[in-house]
Structure prediction request, 260 residues.
Amino acid sequence: MSLKGKVAIITGSTSGIGLGIARGFAKAGINVVINGLGDKTEIQGIRNELGSHGVKTLYHDADMRLPGQITDLVETTVHKLGSIDILVNNAGIQKVSAIDEFPPDKWDEIIAVNMSSSFHTIRSAVKHMRKQGWGRIINIASAHGLVASPFKSAYVTAKHGIVGMTKTVALEVALDNITCNAICPGYVKTALVEKQIADTARTRGISEDQVVNDILLAAQWTKKFVTVEQVAGTALFLCSDDAQNITGTSLSIDGGWTAA
Prediction:
């Protein structure tokens, strides 16, 4: 089955991993709904780029902390593009801090954006997927959905929660021709990771080069950052017919990190 003409929502897709997935989907002929931060000119430029592949594009500015806006993202997509076939929950933020110094408001925000937003998108999207008899839900988790690192209590908690939610949803929709899987990348060189490098250097009192070599890539046995294109390719595979019996799984793209 061709994916051409399918409709995908990708949260947090104006930069980083989400934008990489949007580009990969558009090249495959999938109509793309993007969401995230950025100025109007920047966002229009992204839409023009994606649209150059002959697909329809839509931008929705839903705040991933607000359930009502998340529901509107899904309903607007169905109203304007006719369906929601693929949902990629990618929106995420990060804060690096010791547990006893972790700001409670930042904890709440990370849990809302990185975990609860996926509950709200899935809850809204599943009823449409069931009606049309097909759907693919892909949650961008992290190696930190499988293992922990210090100073990232909220992020690790949220990503572990996403992995658990993935398994539960997969079982609930298994007879509806809908799959639900998580992709667990290691460190991907994005703006989020760049900020994390600076935060970790400050928290641990070491240089940014030391953070990259001794902390981040020390965990990835290939000693290479994951690329957004590799994540996008995995997401596309999970939407294909070859992956129709892959559901409830967490696929690691982490250079061997979680194998050790």
Q: What stands out?
A: The two ends are 37 Å apart (CA to CA).
